[in-house]
Amino acid sequence: MSINHTKILATLGPATSSLEKVCALIEAGANVFRINFSHGSHEEHAQRIAWVREAGEKLNKPVGVLMDLQGPKFRVGTFQNGPVNLVNGAKFTLDMDPTPGDETRVCFPHPEAIGSLGVGSEVFLDDGNLRLVITEAADDHVVTEVVVGGELGERKGVNMPGNLGKVNPLTEKDMIDMEFGLSQNVDWVALSFVQTPADVIAAKEKIAGRATLVAKIEKPSAVEQFEEIVKVTDAVMVARGDLGVEMPAHQVPGLQKMMIKLCRQYAKPVIVATQMLESMRDKPRPTRAEVSDVANAVYEGADAVMLSAETASGDFPVEAVTMMTDIIREVESDPLYYQVLDTTEPAYEPTVESAISLALQSTTHLLDISAIINYTSSGFSTLQASRERPAAPILSLSHSPETARRLSLVWGVYPLYSEKFELQSEMVDFALAKAVEAGFSKSGDKTVITAGVPFGVPGTTNMLRIETVK
Question: End of a domain among 111, 129, 159?
């Protein structure tokens, strides 16, 4: 059986709002589904989560759900007659008047942001497509000159690079949304606009083990403290949209490589996101540059690549997932792929887990291994195995459905539910049967089994065993 090692995270939205669509996305290659809490109602989100769970059971696949919190996203208000056109050189005011705006002004209901802006500050609208420079600043409004104009729609995002101080990434709306998402048993919570390790720690305290946390890297301050953030988070999202506005866009590719490398060093899953196949929102095929972008993220060793509007509101959601699957398979069939991954091999710490990982890497390189079978309670040992980026698929067996679903995001892992074992021989027999059932192994194939003894105790991985399938 051939599986993609690099996972696909697909966003659900109006274009994919049915059980049939969710099933089609899974069959096309989606492994995890993102629910964007910047849009939609709790009722809509609950329905989509239910569809994912039903589809996973129907197709017998542990499929994860990631809820993406909006965070302190700054947006303009509404307009009297729909979108307006901002002309280069014209004056445009951002104020706190809730009245719908026009070509001369719009409501910007964020006093903490207006108070941080001064003359000469730059303001970017709509993901950086429009650029303004402030010419007058007051406590309740700023007057700007349009430097790069264009169409501005209602509630479009606002970025103010370098001008905003420390803002709590968990807003009141986020707290309400997060509690709702946790009540729906989401597997991952994505925290927007992380700036410091303390932001991650505070959010994890509120989650209290009910889900795992993804730190979205969108701010320069997060880049500056990235390694410390990686140490305390469960996973990372390279959110290139806001990051490419907050920082010079030409710096983002290098930062992406750095973040992927450090995440692998610390065995933390990393997602590359934003505009990966953007043109497939309204076209059946991507540009060559987009194909190269996805391929580069795969070559760099990302755990997952993400689709946003392509699957949430685009005209070709299933085709976008299929295209991403095809790109991943092409890269992963290239002999150069594993050569590149081997040159970025992470360093080892003097621990039992590192010793097992090192032995696993050596064994899979020396022997023709059909599958790596890992029995895990918490998922920690599976993350360690994935860190090695082995050519053989990692069949991860867990008696915890939550652990299995969370591992659906991790590179090279094929998660399955299993029963709980008391005897090592029972676990080995079950593992080999599952490897054959999944299509990874056949009679005569060699497999590597890793587990902890005693079984079911998190953090006790201390066994590596080579078994031949009978």
Answer: 159
